């Protein structure tokens, strides 16, 4: 796949700065022209945010960051570039003039994209000598994270230009979608505009507040749209009969006076069949049940990601999930001691989810630590170290772990963990966990951990209270009869 060797960005505002960051973090050198006196500061701040986001986005090694150069003239900025991105303010006369200057100074085969969100490429290319290389490349903010680019050609744009633009986007982590006909605002902004108009009416008519409206989106269909879009979501809503059934069932609603957008499409048989056929192709043979499972897995991943937003406080639906989980922990704080504490305590039951596996379909290393950490947490709750205890300023901190990988936990497998207390005193808790496949009982991994009881506010180890120690020592005394489990006391290295 052909890659961009050097890029030029004309304009370094919100969108232009996002393009610059996207190119740089893909390892591409970028020459920039922006006459704004603080362009360097503005672009630098966008790049800093992008680098912070990429550190969370992927663990894959990024290429060396491209070289950023601010040029004194537009002509110098575009002279050596093979992709030139114009991102000046949304005025036809201004953009047309800038693009004409770019056209005159650029190399003959350079691609020229405009970041316009609504101006027609035919109008933009009017005065260019080489209009065949001009196209709209409409991104979404933040450009360095959201991957979509609407590629729209004008009347004089060549098919080769469109193909070349589409080919050069995947290597920088972006997805180009070719819009077959140029229309004002293209596709994305038309959808957003329709939603925006209806939203303004709902606020105008005092139906709801802006916060309520945003909550309706972000706690419901916004999550669905994030991973399946509109039509595939509705395909599932049609049940096993699929998209055609959905259209037949809900199509009449279009004629109802639900909306201020009253220019309703004629949902005739031809259009129903057209949408049905395209929806079949989109599903690529996946059944409704399979699509439902994919949807559910994706939604779980999104909700889990949102749970860690705002520095771990949670955001939107993720904060709701976090609060719900905390209430479950509180309700579960009354867990009683096991009837038979003389056996290892079976504490965690779970399943290997798609978010936990690597490219081989096996559970990744850090998920083993997560399960073993959950096992330690379950033990702590059992002995009285619950959420209220932690919020009061005391807890146990893990200070050492040793994990052995003896088997493989695979996608979809039910797994469970068990815990044996090896030793305990006023400050220390020495535990040994095992992880098993539930169906067969096969031992998959072990973890030996040392935990210290701490005063989290003072930041030092302190003695645990008697109410906790009594429970810990009661279990430890029973577990002493089990003997030392195989593998306890091991360290990494060859036997001597």
Please describe what this structure looks like:
There is one protein chain. The chain has 496 residues and is α/β, with parallel strands linked by helices. It is built from 16 helices and 14 strands. It has an eight-stranded mixed beta sheet with strand order 3-2-1-4-5-6-7-8, sandwiched between helices. Strands 9, 10, 11, 12, 13 and 14 form a six-stranded antiparallel beta sheet that branches. Helix 1 packs across helix 2, helix 8 crosses helix 12 and helix 12 crosses helix 13.
Task: Give the integer mean of the pLDDT values.
Answer: 89
Strand count, sense and barrel status of the largest sheet are:
8 strands, mixed
> What structural category characterises the helix and strand content?
alpha/beta
- Helix count, per DSSP? 16
- SSE order, one letter for each helix or strand: EHEHEHEHEHEEHEHHHHHHHEHHEEEEEH
Distance between the termini: 52 Å
C-alpha geometry: globular
Number of strands: 14
Residues in helix, % = 40-55%
- Please compute the radius of gyration using only Cα atoms: 29 Å
Q: Please state how the strands of the largest beta sheet are arranged side by side.
A: 3-2-1-4-5-6-7-8
Low-confidence stretches: none
Strand content: 15-25%
Sequence-ordered SSE layout with sheet pairings:
Layout: E1 6-10, H1 14-25, E2 29-33, H2 39-57, E3 68-70, H3 74-78, E4 83-86, H4 92-105, E5 111-114, H5 121-124, E6 134-139, E7 148-153, H6 159-168, E8 175-178, H7 188-204, H8 210-228, H9 231-237, H10 242-250, H11 269-283, H12 288-307, H13 317-331, E9 345-351, H14 365-382, H15 387-391, E10 394-405, E11 414-424, E12 428-437, E13 443-455, E14 460-461, H16 466-479
Parallel strand pairs: 1-2, 1-4, 2-3, 4-5, 5-6, 7-8
Antiparallel strand pairs: 6-7, 9-11, 10-13, 11-12, 12-13, 13-14
